[in-house]
Amino acid sequence: MSLKYESQLREPLVDGDKNYHQVTVDICTPIEVKPSKLWYVGFYISVALLLFGVYSVYREVVYGTGQWNLNKTVGWGWDITNFVWWVGIGHAGTLISAILLLFRQGWRTGVNRAAEAMTIFAVMCAGQFPIFHMGRVWMGFFVMPYPNTRGPVWPNFDSPLMWDVFAISTYFTVSLLFWYSGLLPDFATVRDRAKTKLRKLLYGIASFGWTGSTKHWQRHESLSLVLAGLATPLVLSVHTIVSFDFATSVIPGWHTTIFPPYFVAGAIFSGFAMTQSLLIVVRKVLHLEDYITIGHIEAMNKVIVLTGSIVGCAYLTELFMAFYSQNKYEAYAFFYSRGNLFSPYGWSYWGMMACNVLSPQVFWFRKLRRNVTLTFFMSIIVNTGMWFERFVIIVTSIYRDYLPSSWTVYYSPSIWEVGFYLGTFGLFFTCFFLFAKYFPVIATAEIKAILKTSGENYKDRMTPIEKEEPAEFVHQFAH
Amino acid sequence: MAKKKFVVGSFDNEDVLFPAVKKVRTAGYKIHDVYTPFPVHGLDHAIGIRETSLHTAGFIYGITGTATALGCMGWIFTTDWPVNIGGKPHFALPAFIPITFELTVLFSAVGMVITFCYLCQMMPFVKKHHFSLRATDDLFVMVIECTAKTNVDDLKAFLTNNGAIDVNVQEAEPGWWFGRYDKDQQLIRDTYVQPV
């Protein structure tokens, strides 16, 4: 009899006939063998995109933000759209690792490592946009509050843009610490299996001399739990603060109190979609179907349909408020600039509605939730939709606000702004390819910890009584 | 630090490990440590180590962060640089909340991780003796420290009877030192084996 009991009704989280050693072998093998040709192809494409992005950024640094077709009216274009989009994607990792840890959701163990990695890389990409949007990026250190010889001149702590600096940098730091502290025991596993000298050296450095001592595990557990407790409100605060960038302004379409929950739900929505896109590929290529099961995919699809519906609710609330407030600027933003399909940017609003509100509704059906191909397709759709959402919020609100004389005709990005966006894709996927090759993609120690309660072969052995004599079982386990 | 003599018993099942730990302790042996590939719940209490106070440290770091944020922003906007921002009060507490919260979390998280590494003596290039390489893979490795009174053969037999799949004796440095895992490095200080 094992230490902990889990019902037969729950699907196993680890499929197949596994023991502890088998888990180690399955997860460490991709690190120890040469990557496939496909890996090299993907990696070099990512690096090429990254280099194109670097050149685009170089153009912007030399010639200014005019290179992006930004003008006096549309001062926030693709760059801030992309910033909000990437930060949103970065929310799923910490949600999975922190909030689901506090909620004791066993299925998080299969996906948390990769999702956290995704978070860190996405936040790295997001950070590039506000930094280079400064225009004079070499003055970027002005955001740091320190006693200086300029007065001292301090940053404005009352400004949401300043809160963003603190929120994003704290979020990045805490996610990185959380991720890395979880990686220590797994790096030690790779180190102790290593056959080559280089691998012994590198994973020896990376594992900080981890031994697996009981006292260390005890502290590690305490650390993970408290970091999860800290990261939970942090996740919610980060996108809340990002939404304050808009909500505290007086632009029609932005000045609403609904923004914080609406942004957080949208962030989780897009983050889970990105997690799906990545993990469906990773589980296939690295043969990890036993650890990232259909059950995991289904669980994430449930979160997608929930958050997608919350976002849909928020869209409808906004529309209603635009009517109910009887504010003509608000009504113009919602019923002309956005709602009218034939207005200059109407396409983006209806694209957003189709991708974010209508299409995820397919996940109400269990059969479709468990369909891998459909899930992959939907994850792309959802992320496109979420990009549209940020574009709608930013551009349709500012291209025509109050004074018709300051309206702009039609803003479309230049090749260098698109290049910057592609460059962050390059950065993201370069990092992710390296992660998939050199890091344990699944939290090995955590999988071992749940193996005997949630592993397929152990579950069957554990309680035949539940299957054979349900009445007796209820009697035994009823309190 | 001196090298010590240890009897090392490896178990392949945590359900066998628990009764064995209990019996070893009742028999009066001193468990140096148990190395496991994942956190085994209840093992810390079974081998008699006290609860960690790491979370208390985290709380103290957290309130340090709160105090730092409020103190700094308050001082800057009331004393050092009292600039009028849209007619808001100089000490605009609601506007200070987001940064105060972020710094609380940041201080607490960074402080805890550093404390964790300090307490566990973990750092890049730190090396320790590994009693079994499979302790990070699939074995639960119980390490018992030999004292002058310990009868090694008895202890080995005792462990085998209690389900250990492999028992051996090792002389090892229990502390840590700087080293690389791709090299067999001796300690900088010359060590000797304690007479048993």
Automatic annotation (TrEMBL), chain A:
Top-level division of the source organism's lineage: Bacteria
Q: What is this protein called?
A: Hydrogenase
Q: Which GO terms describe its cellular component?
A: plasma membrane
Q: Which InterPro entries match?
A: NrfD-like
Q: Which UniProt keywords apply?
A: Cell membrane, Membrane, Transmembrane, Transmembrane helix
- Indicate where this protein resides in the cell: Cell membrane
Q: Which family does it belong to?
A: Belongs to the NrfD family.
KW Membrane (keyword) present:
yes
Q: Where do transmembrane segments lie in this chain?
A: 38-58, 83-103, 115-141, 161-183, 223-242, 262-282, 303-325, 345-364, 376-399, 419-439
What is the source species?
Answer: Ilyomonas limi
Protein topology in the membrane: Multi-pass membrane protein
The UniProt entry lists the main location of this chain as membrane
UniProtKB/TrEMBL annotation, chain B:
Keywords from UniProt, A to Z, are: Membrane, Transmembrane, Transmembrane helix
Q: Does the keyword Iron apply?
A: no
The UniProt record lists the keyword Transferase: no
Any Pfam family matching the protein: ActD
* InterPro entries in alphabetical order: ActD
Where exactly are the transmembrane stretches of this chain? 59-77, 97-120
- Domain of life of the source: Bacteria
Q: What is this protein called?
A: DUF3341 domain-containing protein
Species of origin: Ilyomonas limi
